[in-house]
Recover the amino acids of this structure.
């Protein structure tokens, strides 16, 4: 029996896979369309009736989703004319999780950490092979990071005590990475960052002002100095709607790629010449 590929999707099973309220799921799809510019600034979005049919939900669910995006500044309503995409030129995904040390440190300048109370952590961070050696002791700093009074990340940082003592006031009032980049006494040997995707638990949702279960980016960043000591070990949770990752796929490898291509062409040419002689 042939399946009907043109049959309308039954979205109920899709909705049931998530415990997120239905109106939040609809709002997220609409938000993604706006961010991807499938719905362009100034354009009128489909009517409530059309969205009700498309998403296979009740009218009240669509209204709730639209209201969320209106409060976020993504939509605005005109009496008797409909709902439109707000022409907002601000790049919401301003936090670029750079793939090099200096760019990452530079991107965090000007942001404001607000220290928060934290449970007593383990005395030493847990390091994997290749993460460097442990310092004699660490200072634990926990903060919510803000930009323009909006929370965007939670940082659980273990900073080597001898580094913290170089400028205690700065480390308690500014993001630590830019400070490390500025310190003449610190020579960075390696800087590694790993990223996984998770969801906001109740505490994270409250601190970052997002809904429970909202996707988050969980980063582990480890900075090792010239002595091989892990001087900075941070576990950071970012709001996923504020971040972006740009990767140059040829960075640090373009010359190798060109060399490989050149060798391959030379090999083919040599092989062809040998066949002609034969």
């Amino acid at each position: 029996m042939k399946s009907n590929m043109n049959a309308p999707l039954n979205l109920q099973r899709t909705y049931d896979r998530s415990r997120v309220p239905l109106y939040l799921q609809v709002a997220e799809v609409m938000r993604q369309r706006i961010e991807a510019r499938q719905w362009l600034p100034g354009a009128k979005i489909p009517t409530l009736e059309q969205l009700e049919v498309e998403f296979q939900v009740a009218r009240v669910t669509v209204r709730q989703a639209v209201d969320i995006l209106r409060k976020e500044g993504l939509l605005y309503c005109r009496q008797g004319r409909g709902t439109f995409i707000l022409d907002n030129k601000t790049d919401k995904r301003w936090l670029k999780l750079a793939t090099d040390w200096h760019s990452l440190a530079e991107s965090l300048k000007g942001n404001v950490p607000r220290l928060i109370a934290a449970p007593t952590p383990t005395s030493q961070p847990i390091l994997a092979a290749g993460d460097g050696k442990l310092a004699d002791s660490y200072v634990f700093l926990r903060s919510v990071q803000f930009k323009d009074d909006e929370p965007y990340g939670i940082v659980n940082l273990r900073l080597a005590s001898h580094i913290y003592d170089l400028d205690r006031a700065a480390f308690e009032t500014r993001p630590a990475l830019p400070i490390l980049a500025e310190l003449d006494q610190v020579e960075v040997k390696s800087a590694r960052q790993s990223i996984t995707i998770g969801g906001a638990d109740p505490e994270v949702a409250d601190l970052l002002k997002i809904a429970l279960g909202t996707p988050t980016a969980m980063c582990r960043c480890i900075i090792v100095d010239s002595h091989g000591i892990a001087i900075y070990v941070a576990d950071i949770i970012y709001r996923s709607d504020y971040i972006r990752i740009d990767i140059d796929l040829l960075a640090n490898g373009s010359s190798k790629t060109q060399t490989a291509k050149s060798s391959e062409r030379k090999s083919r040419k040599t092989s062809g010449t040998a066949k002609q002689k034969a």
About this structure: The domain at 12-85 is CATH 1.10.10.10 (Arc Repressor Mutant, subunit A). The chain has two domains: 12-85, 95-244. The beta strands are 75-78, 82-85, 95-96, 112-115, 138-147, 150-160, 188-199, 215-225, 230-239, 243-244.
